[in-house]
Amino acid sequence: MKKANKYNLIANNKIQKNSLESEEEIEEEEEEEDCDEQSLADSSNWLSQITFYWVKIILNKTENISEQDVFNLPKDLNLKRLSKAIIKYWKKQEYLIKNHNKYFQYALIISFAQTLKKLFIVSGCFALASTVITIFVPLTLHLMIDYIKDPKANQLIQMNHWLYGFLIVLLMGIGQILQIFTTQLLYCKANHLVIAGRGCLSSLLANKALKLNPTSLQKQSSGEIINLMSVDITKISDEALLYFHNCWGGPIEIISTCCFLFYYIGIATFASLFAILTLAFITFIITKKIKLLNEQLLTFSDQRAKKVSELFRAIRIVKFQAWEQSFRLEIDLIRQRELKLLKTIKIYSAINNVLDSANSVLITLITFSFYAFLGNELTPQIVFVSIAYINIIRNTLSIFPFSLSATVQSISSFQRIQNYLLLPEVKSINYQNQNQNQNQIAIKIANADFKWTYESDLNYQLFNQNSKPSNFTKCYSNLLNCLPFNNYLKLKENENENENENENE
Description:
With 505 residues, the chain is mostly helical. It has helices at residues 2-19, 23-34, 40-43, 46-51, 56-59, 79-100, 107-115, 117-149, 161-209, 214-219, 222-241, 245-265, 268-313, 315-321, 324-373, 380-421, 472-482, 492-504; strands at residues 443-445, 448-452, 458-462, 465-467.
C-alpha cells in the first residue's frame, strides 16, 4: 500500500508538472499543429481580408458544393487548438487554487482571456479605430459648410480654392468608407470571438464531464450541466462577447462627443443630455412593463393550451356528459384575459415605437430651443454638426446599458462554470513508472500448460515464468496470443489422463 501511494504521488506530480507548461510552449505547439492546415482566410493578403474578396472563390461555384470545396476554418476558430489551449491555461489556474488554498473567482476569466487574447486585441483595435473615426467624421461636415459659405474666406486657399473643396469632399468620402470598413470588420471579429468563446467553454465543460467522480456526479445533476452548456455559455458568448467592446468604447465615445458638442453649443449640451437620458429612462420603463406583460401573457397562453389539451384527451367523456359549454366558457374566459393583455402590450409597443422614431426630433428641438433661449445665434455649422454628435450620443446610449448588463451577468455565469470545473475528478494514476521497483513481481505463472484444438496441434507451455512490471505488457500479450477468443483453456491434467489410457491399452 505504501508503494502504491508512492506511485500515486509520483503520477500526480507528473500531471501537475504537465499542467504548468509555459505559454511559449503552448504557442509553439499551436503553431506546429496549424502550419499544415492553413485556411484560405489566413493565407490571403490584408486587402482581401478587409474586402472579404477571398470568399469569392466559393461563391463562384455554380454547381453543387462538395466537401473538397469547403476551405478550413481560420486559425482563430480552430476548435482543436482552442480547446487544447484553454484546458492547459485552466489547469495552471486550477493548480494554483488547489495548492495555495485560495479561491480566486476570476481564474476562469483569466484562462479564457489568455486563450482568446489575439481575438480580443484585434477586435479591440477595430473598435478603437471605429470610435475615433465616428467622432472625427462630423468635423469634415463643418469644413464643407464653411467652404460652401465662402470658398475664399481663408487666405491659405485663395489661389486654389477649388482644390481645397475637392480635398474636403475626398476627406468626407474616405472618412465614411473607413467608418463602414472598421465597423464591418469589428462585427466580423466580434462574431469570431463569439464562435471561439462558445467552442472553448463547451470543450472545457465536456472534458470535465468525462472526468467527474461519482460523488461529483451526485452533487451535479444532468439538468444543471445542460444549463451550464446552453444558458450560461449563451449569456457569455452571444451577449457579453458580442458587445464587450461597447463597455469601454461607449464611455470614450460619449465623453469625447460631449466635449465636441460643448465646443459648439456650450451649456446647451447639458439640455441635450437631459433630454436623451429622460427619453431613455421612459423607454426603459415601457420596455420593462412590456416584459412583465409578456410573462403574464405566456402564463395565460399555457393555461389555455392546457385546457384545450385536456378537452381533446377526454373528448368522449365531455361529449357523453355534455360538458361542452362549461369547457367553452372556461377557455373563452382565459382567452379574453389573454387578448386584453395582448391589447395592452400593443399599446405600450406603439408608444415605444413613437418615442423611438421621434426622440431625435425631440432631442434636437429641446437642445436648440435652450441654445436660442440663452441668446445664441444658430448657424449652419452649429446646427448640422451638433445634430451629428447628438445622434452619436443617442445611438451609443441605446447600446451601452445592454452591453454593461450582459457583461455583468456573464461574470456570474463564469463563476457558475468555474465552480463546476473545480469539482473533484477521478484520479488518473500512471502505473508504468521508471522509478518502480524492478524486483517486484506483477504476475507469476508456474507449471501451467494452455492447449486448444486446431487443424495444426499447437501447444504453448510456460514453466516457472516470473514477469516483472517492466515486462508485464510483453508477457500479457504472449498470454493473449496463447488464448484464442472462442476456445477453452485446458489444464495439463487432461493430457496426462489421455496418456495413462494409452499405456493401459
